Amino acid sequence: MTDARTHILAKLERVIDRKDAGSADADSRISLHIAGPIPRRGTDETKPEQTERFVREAMLAGADVHELISIEQVPVTVVAYLRAKNLPLNVRVSADGIFENVRWNQEPGLEIENGGVEATDTASLSAAASGVAETGTLVMASSPENPAMYGFVPLLHMVLLPESCIHGSYEDAWIALRQRQGNLAMPRMVNMITGPSRTADIEQTLLMGAHGPQNLMIMIVGGT
Amino acid sequence: MKSSARHFPANAREALADERLQGVLDKFSDGFPVKRANAIARLDEFDELRDAARDIKDHVLANLDTYLKRFESRVHESGGHVHWCRDDQEARTTILSICRAANARTVTKSKSMIGEEIAINDYLADHDIEPVETDLGEYIIQLRQEPPSHIIAPAIHLSKEQVAETFVEKHTGRDPDRTLTDPRVMLDEARAELRQKFLNADVGLTGANMLVAETGSIAIVTNEGNADLTMGLPRVHIALASIEKIVPTLEDASTILRVLARSATGQEMSVYTTFATGPKRTDDLDGPEEFHVLLLDNGRSDLLGTEFQDILRCIRCGSCINHCPVYSTVGGHAYGWVYPGPMGSVLTPALVGIEDAHHLPNASTLCGKCETVCPMHIPLPRMLRSWRVRQVEKNLQSASSRYGLGLWSYLARHPRLYRVLSNCVARALNIMGGHRGKLSRLPLAGGWMSKRDLPAPQGGTFMAQWKNSRSRYL
Ligand code: SF4
């Protein structure tokens, strides 16, 4: 008996009808990253237009968005949001360099912890790699500094998105990601997130916070 | 899952008589189609994207072996394992041996149609490993020991009262007299129950919406975030995918994502689209230590190069099901296997055999709506007709339809007899129609007539009228 791999590949070789093969062969298609049609709404040219669209689409998807002038406003924004959601002032903050100079002690009562997310965490804060204006989608790239589970375990997920990282389309976000990674492989987890977790599995009633966060809050920081 | 597709007529009769199910289905047929239409109205380029999505999959199918090998080597480079499986049996034993090697006692699962196809839950349970479905809909039907009735909304056939009853019965350890009427409270209860399961699981088993050859990533789309917890928390992650799920690049994945959610739920984008590549890296604070991908054939390669090849473009969006008049009348369980609706009626005979599923290609009015709304331009009605042809070739129709067709073909070959007979029948029907000009009963057509009236023929037969008008105009 041949092994399954040999068997399946031999069979494919036999039955594939190659006359329909696209113009580019497989290898060049992979290395050229040819983009398909990009919707006009993903082709805004200026940053303010892209940001405006990102904000609009993210809010349509149910996210809360705050536009900050500088990173210094992060602590006060976080505290106000946690209070509004009636959550304790405890936040699991990622070790992303962007938070390095944030002065958390400006806000008495705010408890910050770093490290891996724990089951009892109620709120987390991590940094996005990109934002895609087309659909208000965040692109989170996992790393030791930004663990993927920050976005799934706590009830509330807050995300810092530098305005400079907002792109028009998914394709532009992939270009940025490839540049960022250089010769490295794809980050272990790339999470595209569009709004907070939801389900409509009980008689088609739409409810937020199925398994992931019930609230997604995005802070866009200009001039970064 | 064992197929009961051969019992479609009986299943459908039962569904039609079930008033509660009919109520739920009424609600269903206004939901998704309206949302889809709204989403598409917001995107001028939708048709262009559909064409591009179709072309991507056609290109992939024409180079499937090359792309699979590319994907495999990327997975190896990122430290993962690839397991090729010819059929359901191989897939089940592969999964079991990975679980055994991990000393697994519980396995969390995110929704996977392939998982249903290979009936992995029963198999794991038979081998003392507890499988726990985590998609809310799948979780509910797992508690009720029912199969899914829709590929993206597996519990769509249930009312909230039924869900409440199930939770009260199965969530022991809670007050049995609590009131459960608010869906929000039910969801919070399920979230709490499942959270513990997520944290305790030894293995996470997910499906995959796409496999990206460029990066060796599996792409999974959910709205709940359950797939991410399923693959992110346990020590071992197994992803189950059939071989046609390949796309070449992240760009190609993006084109397909643009049509997927809009066609499925009418969202611009599902909440979570995750690309997972290999196991936990050095210094990562979370993630699985082992990453396994199962590449399952299970009959797909038999379809390549045949008149059914195009069904391999299917991205399981459910749009054809949401728009199908037959599905919205009988629901998903009547189809008797994993895949309901038009895509199921094409795929099921291919995967379980036409002998076992010969009713399904007939469970269609060939109204063509499914093809119109399919984002991958899959010619579902044409393929349903092809199955009907095979059915005739294999003599699988009922004796009465064979007899009827035989009689008709005899008459069609004897025009004079045909004319005399049809003349008599037309007159008789005219008389039976009476003043109303309508017939509500006919011999041999009880099933059809019980829900409908037939206008009685007025005037002569077509042939007679045609002759008359020819003499008038020529
Ligand atoms: S056949 Fe088309 S419409 Fe139906 S599930 Fe597949 S892709 Fe969607």
Q: How would a crystallographer describe the biggest sheet of chain B?
A: 6 strands, parallel
Evaluate the radius of gyration of chain A.
21 Å
* Oligomer kind: heterodimer
Corresponding CATH superfamily of the largest domain in chain B: NagB/RpiA/CoA transferase-like
Tell me, briefly, the overall form of chain B: globular
- Per CATH, the superfamily of chain A is NagB/RpiA/CoA transferase-like
CATH class of the largest domain in chain B equals: Alpha Beta
Task: Give the largest chain-chain interface (CB within 8 Å).
Answer: A-B, 80 and 104 residues
Task: Note the total helix count of chain A.
Answer: 5
Cα distance spanning the termini of chain B? 64 Å
| Low-pLDDT residue spans of chain A | none
Strand proportion of chain B, as a percent range, falls in 5-15%
Describe the structure.
- The complex is a heterodimer of chains A (224) and B (474).
- Chain A has helices spanning 4-15, 26-32, 47-60, 74-84, 170-181, and strands at residues 64-68, 90-93, 111-113, 123-127, 130-132, 137-141, 156-162, 166-167, 189-193, 198-199, 207-208, 215-221.
- Chain A has 224 residues and is an alpha/beta fold.
- In chain A, the strands form three sheets. A six-stranded parallel beta sheet of chain A has the order 1-12-7-4-2-3, sandwiched between helices. A four-stranded mixed beta sheet of chain A has the order 8-5-6-9, sandwiched between helices.
- In chain A, strand 10 and strand 11 (207-208) form a beta hairpin.
- The mean pLDDT of chain A is 93.
- Chain B is of the alpha/beta class.
- Chain B folds into three domains: 31-296, NagB/RpiA/CoA transferase-like (Rossmann fold, 3-Layer(aba) Sandwich); 317-393, no CATH class; 404-473, no CATH class.
- The chains are: A alpha/beta (224), B alpha/beta (474).
- Chains A and B meet through helix 1, helix 2, helix 5, strand 9 and strand 10 of A and helix 2, helix 3, helix 4, helix 8 and helix 10 of B.
- Iron/sulfur cluster binds at residues 263, 314-320, 343, 374-376, 378 of chain B.
